[in-house]
Protein: Metal-dependent carboxypeptidase
Organism: Geotoga petraea
Amino acid sequence: MGYIEKLKEKLKDISKYHQIMSLMHWDLETGAPERSFEYASNTLGELSGKIYRMETSEEMGDLINKLTQKNEYDNLSENDKRIVDLVKKDYERYRKLPEEFVKDLTKTTSNAQKYWVEARKNNDFSIFQPYLEKIVKMSIQQAEYLGYDGNRYDALLDMYEPGMKTKELKGIIEDLKIRLVDFVNDLTEKGTKPEEDFLFEKYDLNKQKEISIKVLELMSYNFKAGRLDVAAHPFTIRINPGDVRITTRYQEKDIRDSFFSTVHEGGHALYEQGISNEFVDTPLYDGASMGIHESQSRFWENILGRSYDFWKYFYPEMQKTFDQLKDVSVEDFYKAINIVEKSLIRVDADEVTYNLHVMLRFEIEEALINERIKVEDLPKIWNEKMKEYLDIVPENDSVGVLQDVHWAHGSFGYFPSYMLGNLFSAQFYHKMKEEIPDYDKMIRRGDFSSILNWLRSNIHKHGKKYEPNELLRKVTGEKLNVDYFMDYLKEKYSKVYKL
Amino acid sequence: MGYIEKLKEKLKDISKYHQIMSLMHWDLETGAPERSFEYASNTLGELSGKIYRMETSEEMGDLINKLTQKNEYDNLSENDKRIVDLVKKDYERYRKLPEEFVKDLTKTTSNAQKYWVEARKNNDFSIFQPYLEKIVKMSIQQAEYLGYDGNRYDALLDMYEPGMKTKELKGIIEDLKIRLVDFVNDLTEKGTKPEEDFLFEKYDLNKQKEISIKVLELMSYNFKAGRLDVAAHPFTIRINPGDVRITTRYQEKDIRDSFFSTVHEGGHALYEQGISNEFVDTPLYDGASMGIHESQSRFWENILGRSYDFWKYFYPEMQKTFDQLKDVSVEDFYKAINIVEKSLIRVDADEVTYNLHVMLRFEIEEALINERIKVEDLPKIWNEKMKEYLDIVPENDSVGVLQDVHWAHGSFGYFPSYMLGNLFSAQFYHKMKEEIPDYDKMIRRGDFSSILNWLRSNIHKHGKKYEPNELLRKVTGEKLNVDYFMDYLKEKYSKVYKL
């Protein structure tokens, strides 16, 4: 057996343990009984320790060493070269972090979550503050262990968005922020806000579920290789290559929540279901990055799922299912689900204001990691930025600085992916429309096959074969360009708000 | 660390893998998507291989060796002695089976199941015959590897019912068979068969589910440490010590199926939830035997769940839930769910005829293992025995010799547990009534707490601390006595059938 085959055997082994952990995570989030958690968390902890040991073993190091010798490496196929590169990158990253540090970080963040919950419940940031201080300190330490060229935040950002740099992000944001703030002001001051009351009547939960299944079928989500369940915080998870599961949630008094959560997660799931099978059990069997993954969910949720053409096709199905919509026209429904608002909560934000919420978080966390601000000042800073970007101030920290769990998880560097997802999706969309001449007509017919084929052959099938920026250039012919996103917003919302 | 602590560490490790496999099994049976099966089965195969290697390792052998030295062993607590005994027994059993043989048997039986399904679908025993022949041959080989004193079948029986011997079983059956056949004839010839049509009206599935949950709550099944799901073949499974899950199934046109499946599985689950926590992660954290486990499910399903006193309490709840029962009296309902019939299918059999179905299977498998009969003659032998015991002949093999999956699984030696469960349950019941003076009254009040406490302190909490016959004697003061079962049947059914 050659070295590359030996490596693949090891990766297959590791993959089995990931599959088991995925099933356990899915189970815990979709209805495992309360008393199961303690035992399951324990087992999960041991399994991640096991994976860590497998990924950082001397044997693994030897194999990587052998495979990166020039004569060995040059003889590998392109795919195998990429596999070796990715395994090496992870190996080196893990080896840079002392085992004690990893354990301590895991313990610290899992402990911090409890206090985050309590702080949120009591509207009291000070409960969470000491834990967040420790996490920030450890995240700085983590970045130091990992190393970086320019900005310390780069070390963390790279875990979620490989190749992206803080400097580039700052450039994007500087440009985009002004344009977004102006546009939001135009819409809310000069535009006409649509009616929306009918969205909040009582909608039968079973019928909402039927609609969720229908739209997933329409998207060609493969139910023979997946299932739909309920979770408090919807997510998509791959259990194994034949099993990519979606979760959603149903609110009786908001018809939007389940629908758009389902379509969003459906977008993630189509990506996972579309990765080439030849990559199974290797690091290539994954999304290109968090941002690229989010571009898929956001495309389906917003660009397609909140488009007029889509509703022109799908609305009769909704009217048939829900009597409450009998006297609501498709135009009014379409406008209602596209209301733009200066609101407090990121996860409820519309597609125009959403990125402002993300920028604020990025700016804060980048400053924290570079020690330019202090944890104790976060509530003040948060509120000031909210006032500046969205002209709204949270009445308490629970709907302000305490609203997201990410920092309690220690996931510094994650937030930018949400924004990048939106930007990528608009850039992909622009290219897609160039290459699928009948795009609009097909959506109006409820025929998404050309769209899905385009996504599959341009994005999905490649998995993690390319770096995100490489993939973007390969597909669209250029690097990240925020104009596509702004153009998309302007064209759509000027009409919705009759500007 | 002493040897016993080292052993316990290993057992804890093994237990983690069992927990993972349980979750995967549960998932596959309760709705995992079709395409998940191939990958999950693969992972399950590797996990069982891993457990096998852990259980038969040289290290494990050394520890057992050390712990069974007189001076070491004598210093162990009673519980630890029992742990060592059980581990040793399993270790020796596994070591007797060559790894190649185990793999071959697993492959053979998993393959055979496909042909069993096909044979059943096509009503054609010959499709299954060659696979069953191979399984019988391998089961004989297995018994030879394992070794036995008297009857070759003992080696297999002991895996499910430790300590039970073929000779003893034959003695029990010889006595019981005649008494049962006579009694069934009395009932069906001289008795008055109750009405039952109302059981087969259309019963709303959601309401059936509500009733299932209500009765489990009434039984004190702990939903915080378990959940109820749907499976084609209902089962109970422990995921971990805080998580014992039940499955049931709902038939729209039979009100009995979901109810009694739920109560049956609830009985298993109460046993699992009641084992002393000090046994967690050791072989004592298990039922005493398959037969004792079945005694718990059968007690709740039949002795309690099909009793007049129970329905006197619970029937108003049923009438409130189902309009179809509005004009049916509790007496008529009680009689309908206790109809005795000479029927073809074991799993649908009433508690009077059930053991006859089991005896027939035991007689056939014992003769197969001892090579007194041939697989090719099974359909004929089956039908002859059905005629003899139940005076009914299957019109085809699908409702005859092909009805159960057990032989395709290679589970020779399992069937007797079903009968023993019935016999144990009646013997326990007799003792329970002696020790709980207000037994009947409490059931009529829907108060099962004394009963559950009795079961917990006499049976559940002990787990696998005692051999089944030892437990039976400890609880009831005597060895297995079929009179209790016959007395119970006679008293109950003479009334139902107005003999």
